[in-house]
Amino acid sequence: MATATLSESNSSAPSVGGPLLGDAEFQFMRDFVYQHCGISLGEQKRQLVQGRLLRRLRALGLRDFAAYCELLRREPEGELGELASVISTNVTSFFREMHHYDLLINELLPRWLEEKKHGGRLRIWSAGCSTGEEPYALAMVLAEALERTKSTVDARILATDLSPQALETARAGTYPLERMGGVSEARRNRWFLRGEGSYEGWACVHPRLRELVTIQPLNLLHEWPMRGPFDAIFCRNVVIYFDKPTKQRLFERYAGLVEQGGYLFLGHSESMYGLSDSFELVGRTVYRKRAS
Ligand SMILES: C[S@@+](CC[C@H](N)C(=O)[O-])C[C@H]1O[C@@H](n2cnc3c(N)ncnc32)[C@H](O)[C@@H]1O
């Protein structure tokens, strides 16, 4: 972690638009987010970080970025999630990258449910679940497959993220209708309860989906309490922020938790190329664990 003397920087200099993010504070934050979140923050992100953190400074009643860095020093774990939410994006949507859901619906879920029909558990992990659209979309296709096959397989989805605000939204499971563009009319009717009165324009996920999804805070760089094995891990649009060694370590840890022949799904602009021998590419950003 950087040990720059924060008070020597120019961040406390008054300016029309609020305090400036000085060299020492920015370097401190770069080291901090790399060490705690695995996120590499390029120099070109300085303006963006300054702009986005101003609101956080105001919410905390802090005068400048030096004070914010002191807070990070004092309470690294307490502020980590908030900082991560500021510098990374929580952008997500229901049925984002639909081809992954198609693979689940048409091939993987029918196969797993058949294989496990005499016992066995089906586990899917949405790692970096953001505000919950991904795990709830997974829950919809899982619930439909269970119903279709009249299966009694013990099936569950684990949803984790670093950001406390994102998890709060995920737990609430209530979304404005305009954010539900990816959900078909049939699924809206089946899996959501429409709000009325002051909740007009909002929809809340069906209790059956909540039953299937367990939401937990987890920093992917820290210890993981769960042992697996998982049939599939969805880690989409998360590692885009990580540098090469962080991705390599993460993929090896995933390999340790995925079933033999299990799957890892990455986001559209992410790849495992040159980073792991444990998985083979079997579809569009879909990887299968090799036999060892
Ligand atoms: C762009 S969202 C992706 C959401 C969803 N997976 C999707 O593809 O739509 C990225 C999420 O990764 C989370 N994230 C970033 N670094 C993380 C870390 N070290 N541990 C856990 N979650 C992290 C962020 O908080 C954010 O919610």
TrEMBL record:
Coiled coil: none annotated. Residues 21-292 form the CheR-type methyltransferase domain. SMART domains: MeTrc (SM00138). It is an enzyme of class 2 (transferase). It catalyses: L-glutamyl-[protein] + S-adenosyl-L-methionine = [protein]-L-glutamate 5-O-methyl ester + S-adenosyl-L-homocysteine. The keyword Transferase applies. Its EC number is 2.1.1.80. It comes from the Bacteria. Transmembrane segments: none annotated. Keywords: Methyltransferase, S-adenosyl-L-methionine, Transferase. Methylation of the membrane-bound methyl-accepting chemotaxis proteins (MCP) to form gamma-glutamyl methyl ester residues in MCP. This is Chemotaxis protein methyltransferase. It comes from Dyella acidiphila.
